[in-house]
Design goal:
With 328 residues, the chain is an alpha/beta fold. The chain has helices spanning 11-18, 41-57, 71-83, 96-108, 133-147, 163-177, 194-206, 222-231, 246-254, 265-281, 315-327, and strands at 30-34, 60-64, 88-91, 113-116, 127-130, 151-158, 181-189, 213-216, 238-242, 259-262, 302-304, 308-310. Helix 3 packs parallel to helix 4 (96-108) and helix 5 (133-147) packs parallel to helix 6.
């Protein structure tokens, strides 16, 4: 695996990437976003960003992906997209073991590929646009440490094989390492199935295993955790979620979820299409070069779209701003 050098995109370069005028665009240009689970609200927000950018540039954009977490199906759909000879591809990598070769094949065929949300850093992709996932994990871990005063048992829900979730887990581990009283009781691979999160949480409570906090490294687990806590009338357990599923936000308002780390999927897809369009009109050559190791690369290795901590103090404001943005 190649060593990836992460850089923050300078403001001047960002303007250069997205500031080109609309006259150069052709309606025949077609861009694709290959997501990991098109039904979840997180990816619906990304689809909104893709659509907004396509409308601005007057180009075509299509949103595809499996309806549940399934790396094999995503691999097949990526190859289906590539067969259509697209102008460019955005992809959230569910599992590099399935997608890395596909990305490299696209680059070899002359199709620029940008990863968003979840990366395949050893692939020939040109840029990764998304959250600094290590920092996102550390952000959530600090909330757990604060709420538990540095002492307690924690259950963490994740999906094995996803690099972004592994980075978040690393952030949690490193913060917890500074609090010897915090113990990770179990790491649950929920395999992209919310029922596993529901059933596992229920089992912990029914066995009366002392759990002080539940942590979710992805979007679909913590709404299920909150549902179980609500049904069992259980209070006093810290729950730190990920992303801004409406059920998560409602659970924060009810006091069932302590906080969530909100990402910016709309921004990832919006900016991703614009950068792809620029790469189409002003290609970097050779496309398959290891640009991450080139100190004079015309593309950044990593564009950090940021993360926001949402709790009861700002959840209403977040919902209002989200609804306003959706209306626009």
């Amino acid at each position: 695996m190649s060593r990836t050098v992460c850089t923050t995109l300078p403001a001047a370069l960002l303007l250069a990437l997205v500031g080109c005028g609309g006259s150069q665009h052709a309606v025949t240009e077609t861009y694709y976003l290959v997501a990991t689970n098109v039904k979840v609200p997180y990816w619906q927000q990304a689809a909104g960003g893709l659509t907004r950018a396509a409308a601005q540039y007057k180009v075509k954009a299509e949103f595809v992906g499996p309806e549940s977490y399934d790396p094999k199906i995503q691999h097949q759909q990526f190859l289906g997209v590539l067969a259509k000879k697209p102008t460019g591809i955005l992809v959230s990598v569910s599992d590099p073991a399935y997608l890395q070769a596909d990305i490299d094949e696209a680059i070899t065929a002359g199709v620029p590929v940008i990863t968003i949300d979840s990366d395949a850093p050893a692939s020939k992709r040109l840029t990764f646009i998304g959250t600094d996932n290590y920092k996102a994990g550390a952000m959530g871990a600090k909330i757990v440490a604060e709420k538990l005063q540095g002492k307690g048992a924690v259950v963490i829900y994740t999906i094995d094989g996803q690099g972004n979730l592994a980075d978040r887990l690393r952030g949690y581990r490193d913060v917890f390492a500074t609090h010897p009283g915090l113990k990770i009781e179990e790491i649950v691979n929920m395999q992209g199935d919310p029922r596993i999160a529901f059933d596992t949480t229920k089992e912990f409570l029914e066995k009366k295993t002392k759990i002080d906090a539940f942590v979710c490294l992805e979007a679909i687990a913590c709404p299920e955790v909150a549902d179980v806590l609500d049904r069992q009338k259980t209070a006093g357990i810290t729950v730190v979620a990920m992303d801004t599923d409406q059920r998560t936000l409602e659970a924060i308002k009810k006091g069932l979820v302590t906080a969530t780390v909100g990402q910016k999927p709309f921004s990832m897809a919006f900016l991703g299409l614009k950068v792809l369009d620029d790469l189409h009109h002003y290609p970097v050559l050779p496309l398959g070069r290891n640009w991450s190791q080139d100190p004079f690369a015309p593309v950044p290795t990593f564009i950090d779209t940021g993360a926001t901590l949402i709790d009861r103090s700002n959840v209403d404001q977040f919902i209002e701003e989200r609804n306003s943005a959706t209306a626009r």
